[in-house]
Design goal:
Blueprint: H1 10-24, H2 26-32, H3 39-65, H4 87-96
Amino acid sequence: MQVVVRDNNVDQALRVLKKKMQREGVFREMKQRRAYEKPSERKAREKSEAIRRARKLARKQAIREGLLPAPPKKKLPERKPSVPRTSASTALLSASTR
């Protein structure tokens, strides 16, 4: 796994790296490997994960086919529209603050 550090911004590169590791399941695997897992427990876990994935896939397919209603969309907080600064508005701002 590789992350490019731009403009010496290590914090942003760390965030990107953590996000990539999260997507790949590295943290989940590290947590799992902290303790020994018996083969029977491993089989049971893998089976339950496979069932969960199959159910999720079936649910998404049913939503696409219109058999199930789609879940409600999450509403993002509204942002104030940014006003592009021009040289005239900058001059007005500086004149009004004097």
